[in-house]
Amino acid sequence: MSSVLTDLCRYPIVQAPMAGGASCPQLAAAVSEAGGLGFLAAGYKTVDGMYQEVKQIRGLTSRPFGVNLFMPQPRTADSAAIEVYRQQLAGEVSWYETPLGDPDSGRDDGYEAKLAILRDDPVPVVSFTFGCPSRAVLESFAKAGTVTVVTVTTPEEAQIAQSAGADVLCVQGVEAGGHQGTYRDDFATDQSGIGLLTLIALVRETVELPLVATGGLMRGSQIAAALAAGADATQLGTAFLVCPESGAHPLHKRAMTNPLFVRTELTRAFTGRPARGLVNRFMREHGPYAPAAYPQVHYLTTGLRKAAAKTGDAQGMALWAGQGHRLARELPAAQLVEVLADELDAASVNYAQEESR
Description:
Blueprint: H1 3-6, E1 13-15, H2 25-33, E2 38-41, H3 47-60, E3 65-70, H4 79-88, H5 90-96, H6 111-120, E4 125-129, H7 135-144, E5 147-152, H8 155-164, E6 168-172, E7 178-179, H9 196-206, E8 211-214, H10 220-229, E9 233-236, H11 238-241, H12 250-255, E10 264-267, E11 275-278, H13 281-286, H14 296-310, H15 333-356
Parallel strand pairs: 1-9, 2-3, 3-4, 4-5, 5-6, 6-8, 8-9
Antiparallel strand pairs: 7-11, 10-11
Helix pairs in contact: 2-3, 6-7, 8-9, 10-15
Organism: Streptomyces albipurpureus
Family: Belongs to the nitronate monooxygenase family. NMO class I subfamily.
Pfam families: NMO (PF03060)
């Protein structure tokens, strides 16, 4: 690992910041305590909600941890398309007996206020998704002693982030569960995602920053492959989602290995932005009609998803999952970190033996 990352964690294992509840203080603290780097997800939380979680994790571990922020999105969504989709969801409203939400209720996710909190009371790492912060923002965190990580999905985005002054890049392959962190959200790019190993190589040829690779990684041997391809560390989300410390809904956890859910797809059905999840009824019925309108569609469907979870209906939930979801292991987070580290060591020995032949 680069020196920037070795100061943060013993193993090249980062727990992905999964917005929506999975990345709670208990999970992040357990990962950090075990030698990985735990992350809190500030997305969709209030400013005070984020602050309280930071306080909580500080009470659970003295090890470094990170906080992830969502970048504000441009006001480019077509209001007419959102209204058409609202009508498309009328049957869901009746089925779950729950009204649709206000699509304009959280446009910037409290971005500026969250920045202020994290600058006034610095945390070890802050990462950004759905775009690149300004140079001034990144410089302000550098002055506070905070390492900054910017998510990228193409070599072009990597160049933008390096030019802006990011310390580390999180290179996200198309295999990743949850939202794709693309900078441009339009239909033309929905099917143009790059596989992780290829993306690592492309980005490594483009920039000189440390790289954290993420996308479908579930085993130590895959971590070894990503490191061999040029990454300095790896980030895993789905692998940690099923841990007992995870705040994910029990239905979501069980779905990872439920034979009823055989594959994942990228969809706009739940949030208006491409995100990878297990294919279920809601995705099949509404994915083809969902507009490019994030975060408006997210807030429109929030109540429906909560109602589905409350009634035990996984077919109406956003079951975010990476392509490797069937490899999920229901282990305590600390044990999972140790298992992954052991698998990585074994795979690294095999690589070294093969190279020496």
